[in-house]
Amino acid sequence: ADLNNVRFSAYRTAIKIRRLQKALCLDLLDLSTTSEVFKQHKLSQNDQLIGVQDVISCLTTIYSGLEEKHKDMVNVPLCVDMCLNWLLNVYDSGRTGKIRVQSLKIGLISLSKGLLEEKYRYLFKEVAGPTEMCDQRQLGLLLHDAIQIPRQLGEVAAFGGSNIEPSVRSCFQQNHNKPEITVKQFIDWMRLEPQSMVWLPVLHRVAASETAKHQAKCNICKECPIVGFRYRSLKHFNYDVCQSCFFSGRTAKGHKLHYPMVEYCIPTTSGEDVRDFTKVLKNKFRSKKYFAKHPRLGYLPVQTVLEGDNLET
């Protein structure tokens, strides 16, 4: 609830999921281990239903392995209990005591740690057929299971609601409506951050930004160095904002919310500093009318929506 003041839905959702990921210690679990545990527990029939006992046995293997590597951080019984509850809340809200094998896998893979594109590859592999191709139905199942994660946090509206059909359509349209897509075509589409999945790449940006320290001072709350995301104005020289001021919509005198900003989740390079300086210079000579017409110039990477209206400007 204390994250509800973040104005941008993709960020609000991603920050909530990041908090959940850390509470469940899934930020310590790498993708290859997750995949190994699925094999070890013979979870190959994705459309099968498995009961609570089997889920507990799978989670116990996962957390026992994590406890060996991170003794002080993992309490096995507590983690198993919390993760089981989370999985049931997401995939068995009616508490039938059973969830689909595929749902279990997609839930755990989505919150494991690893490189973003590698995660896309793992997710694709879980739903693809023996030919390593994926049809509309299989992609639909993947997106349906993935969207349950923000839905359980009350955040589904911004991602097209529970209706994943427009996302499936946009992916196949991009690939000339062929009956099946390859993993490469899926990754290329995911790079565009489609509406129903935008929270996942943003989650990775949130995780990357957590330890970033920027040699800059927030013009609003004066935090220095800025830790986390740094937002730099492309309208004013030396105008930087920290993530908490930016997300809650605070501004300093003379800087409007609709002015273009650029986001950094890791410290800037000198090349980026020069590039931004040039942009500010150009923007200095642009009128108010220009910004009213082009409010999203160089703005948050959240309006990469391939279907439906923009989430927010």
From TrEMBL:
Gene Ontology molecular functions: zinc ion binding
Chief localization: membrane
Entry-linked InterPro entries: EF-hand-dom_pair, EF-hand_dom_typ1, EF-hand_dom_typ2, KCMF1/Dystrophin, Znf_ZZ, Znf_ZZ_sf
SUPFAM superfamilies: EF-hand (SSF47473), RING/U-box (SSF57850)
One GO term (biological process): synaptic signaling
Membrane keyword on record: yes
Topological category with respect to the lipid bilayer: Peripheral membrane protein
Domain ZZ-type, chain residue ranges per copy: 213-269
Alphabetical keyword list: Cell membrane, Membrane, Metal-binding, Zinc, Zinc-finger
Subcellular location: Cell membrane
A GO-annotated cellular component: synapse
One Pfam short name: ZZ
Protein name in UniProt: Utrophin
Organism of origin: Eurypyga helias (Sunbittern)
Lineage of origin: Eukaryota, Metazoa, Chordata, Craniata, Vertebrata
